[in-house]
Amino acid sequence: MNDDFQNKAINTLRFLSADGVQQANSGHPGLPMGTAAIAFTIWMKHLKFDPQNPDWADRDRFILSGGHGSMLLYSMLHLTGFKVTLDDLKHFRQWGSNTPGHPEYGFTPGVDTTTGPLGQGLSNGVGMAIAEAHLAAEFNKLDQKIVDHYVYGIVTDGDLQEGVASEAASLAGHLKLGKIIYCYDDNHISIDGPTSLSFSEDCGKRFEAYGWHVSYVADGNDVEEIDNAIKAAKLDPRPSLIVCRTHIGFGMPNRQDTSKAHGEPPGDDELNAAKRNLGWPEEPRFLVPDDVKAFFLKTGEK
């Protein structure tokens, strides 16, 4: 895959998400725009899943712990062939829609856990990894791995600030749950302003103290760098935290790296400016180029 097509695919994911928030006139565009390349790398290069059987027992789990960025997950589910239609994306956050404001397990196909209360998704993933380790010990044989799946996730500053996340991360390190691979959306911004207003600890050192493998990605839009970090994480017996330096609202000329990108629709002018900035057509909204759709669907059929 050449870089131009890869960027086209990532921008499809990025702007489907932003268009959904703008159409709803409600939601959080910053996380999806800032972490689209991370989600792309996890789903296209590592995640084991089956859109036709979303409850497949040995699928890899994906947790969007910052559930407020739900349009990122819904857009990915649509592109990869789950039962989330383009019309569902256009009805994001609407009464009775298949795409509620925060992901809900058992409601939208492909959602592995309900998230929204920060810290919950990260902690749920620890429970999933404990279950995987228990089932693997119970049923796997020397020559046959019946149970063998990972728990991937995107976790945020808000998640890491929660006490429940600290408790769960400590347990994961103690139990050496090496099937956990979390990418930390380190964007330095909260809904109220810079995270430095209330959060200044070194999260990498904190997780090292818990017994985690910690690595760093300098550019959260660099697919190769993210991919290499995930590959290295798979070789380590400890749970992994990959600290990815990201930019909330990536592409928005006036809101990127500000709290204005976090929790409100961008507005037509800012959204269109972001599209121009990244070489994306302003119209039509919810654009999915045919070659990009074919690529995502092919990955989902593997």
User: What is the multimeric organization of the chains shown?
Assistant: single chain
The value of Rg in angstroms is: 18 Å
What is the name of the CATH superfamily?
Thiamin diphosphate (ThDP)-binding fold, Pyr/PP domains
The domain count comes to 1
Assign the CATH class.
Alpha Beta
> Approximately how much beta-strand content do the residues carry?
5-15%
How is this structure best summarized?
With 302 residues, the chain is an alpha/beta fold.
Structure description:
With 302 residues, the chain is α/β, with parallel strands linked by helices. It has a single domain (3-301), classed as Thiamin diphosphate (ThDP)-binding fold, Pyr/PP domains (Rossmann fold, 3-Layer(aba) Sandwich), CATH 3.40.50.970. The protein is built from eleven helices and seven strands. It has helices at 3-24, 30-45, 70-79, 86-90, 120-139, 157-161, 163-175, 203-210, 223-234, 268-277, 290-301; strands at 61-64, 151-156, 180-186, 189-190, 193-194, 213-217, 240-245. The strands form two sheets. A five-stranded parallel sheet has the order 1-2-3-7-6, with helices on both faces. Strand 6, helix 9 and strand 7 (240-245) form a beta-alpha-beta unit. Helix 1 crosses helix 3 and helix 1 crosses helix 11. It is globular. The two termini are 17 Å apart. The model has no long low-confidence stretch (mean pLDDT 97).
Main features:
two-stranded antiparallel ribbon, alpha/beta, Rossmann fold, 5-stranded parallel sheet, single chain
